[in-house]
Every structure is written in C-alpha cells, then in structure tokens.
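REQUEST ID: PR-0412
SUBMITTED BY: lab tech R.K.
PRIORITY: routine
TASK: structure prediction, single protein chain
INPUT:
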Amino acid sequence: MMHYDPTCDIVVAVGSGVMNDIGKIVANVTSNPYVIVGTAPSMDGYASGTSSMAMDGLKVSLPSACANVIIGDIDILKEAPKRLLQAGLGDMLAKYVSICEWRIANLITGEYYCETIAQMVRDALKKCADNAEGLLQREEEAIKAVFEGLIRVIIFVVYMALVARMKEIHRVYMYHGAEHKTIFCFEHGKELTVENIKKELRYHPRCGTAFIFVTILLSIIVSSVVSVAFPELTANRAIWIAVKLLIMPLIMGIGFEFIQLAGKYPNKLTKLLSAPGLLMQRITTEEPDDAIIEVAIEAMNACLSGKVSEKTENDAENEE
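STATUS: complete
OUTPUT:
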C-alpha cells in the first residue's frame, strides 16, 4: 500500500487468502478494476465483497471491491499444498450449517429466504462431497468442483447482501436495528427517546440471529461428542434422529444461557464466541430513521406496561 503507483489503472493479485484480501482493499481504495488469479482452492473469498483483517485480536470484515475477473487454472490449483486443499473443502462443508441457519432465521424472524439460491449451494456442496477423495489425489475434476463451489457460495452471500438493499427488505432490517438500539438504551438505564436510541449500537449479542448461530454450533459439537461416546446410536438412523431430538432442549438451553452471559459479561472470550452472530447482523440490521425508532419506543413501552397506547391503537385502525 505504501508503494502503490497512482498511475496504475488495474489491480491484479496472484495468490489466495491474504493476497486476495489485500488486492480487494487496494482496488476498493483506488476505485480500480480488480483481477484475482487463484493459486489454491482454499477459501470462498475470491468473489466476496469484503476482506478479513485482524483488529484488536479479532477477525473483522472490511468493505472491499468485488473481483471483476476470477481466474483459476486447474493445473496450478491442483498443485497447492494439501492443507490448503483440505481447507477449501472444509470451508465448503461449513455451508451446510449456513443454509440451515438461513432457513431457521427465515422461519423465526422472517428474514428473506430464496430456495433457488439455497439449492444452488446444496448442489455445489454435493459435488464437493462426492469429489472429496479425489481432492486428496489432486484429481482435476475434484479441484474444479471445490474451486467452483467456493465461488458459488460467496456469490450466494453477496446475493443476500444485495437483497438487503431492496426497499422492502431494507426497511425490515431497519426495524430490526431499531429493536436492538432500543433494547440497548433501556439496558443502559437511559430515557427512551429518539436521540438517546440513535447513539446505541444496532448489533446485539442476544439477538435471535446470534442465538440461532450458537444453537447450530452447539448442536454440531454435542452431536459429535455423543456419536463418539456412543457410536452404536448412529447405526440406526431412526434412533439417531430420536436422540438428537431428545438432546435439543439441552442444546437450546445452553445456547440461551450463553447469549444471556455474553450480554451480561462482555469480555474477550464472550466477544470471540459471539462474533459470528454479530457479523451476521451486519447484513440483517440497518440504521433506522426517526419514525422507525418511534415505533420501537411504542413497542418497548407496550412490553414494559402490558398496555398499548391509544395513539398506537388509533394508528393501527387508520392503517386498516
């Protein structure tokens, strides 16, 4: 960055993770077209509009330029170190959880969900899983499946972010942000006014999105421990499904207690564990305007008093 030539009219990066992130940031700052030549199918950031950087000991996502061109030569990609090939496959398999979290968020919070996009990701995941053994043998078809899958998945994430820009969805996310800011204002003991609420953060550790994310991670961990400790339970699919249903209340209870703890005791550990859910809120929340904040105040007062104000009832009747 210190030696950047301002006369350059295009940014070209050759590499994978770090080189790609740096290239995207430079392209974003200089407003130049960006080309990435991938050398390893190790992560899904080639098509991403953000870059992962370390800040105060935590990984954060910074706004960056999306690649105008992505080049992947199979002969080069298949020669990447085995650990990078495995990393790419692992990155893809983690998207099974992402799709599940997206669907649950849709059912619980009404977040936008597109089955067509979800199916595209599932198809890419299946292709990667089917070629897992060939990946270790550096087979061209397996390398191609993982590389294409990684690009497809991040396009799906970018699509979600773009959907958030739609007028109707954007407004829903503004209400979501107003809810969080109002709760923060109340918890900090301040008067519920528009000016006070504006000063609060829109990312809340006890958000339903964070709870869903924590619950899914805990489900994976607890299920893995149980399957290792009692492998005979996994032999019969019906029994295994029944066991997972039985331990679900325990998992949800642990998840609930964790987000309560994270909200009450914000330290490095709880911030680290809450980071994935908070990052998702960068997509699912937006800064609200004054009118939306006023709605959030009315809703909060109704919750605290157990009564709906006459003004709110009249407004609702007028809407009808």
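NOTES: The longest strand covers residues 50-55.
REVIEWED BY: pending
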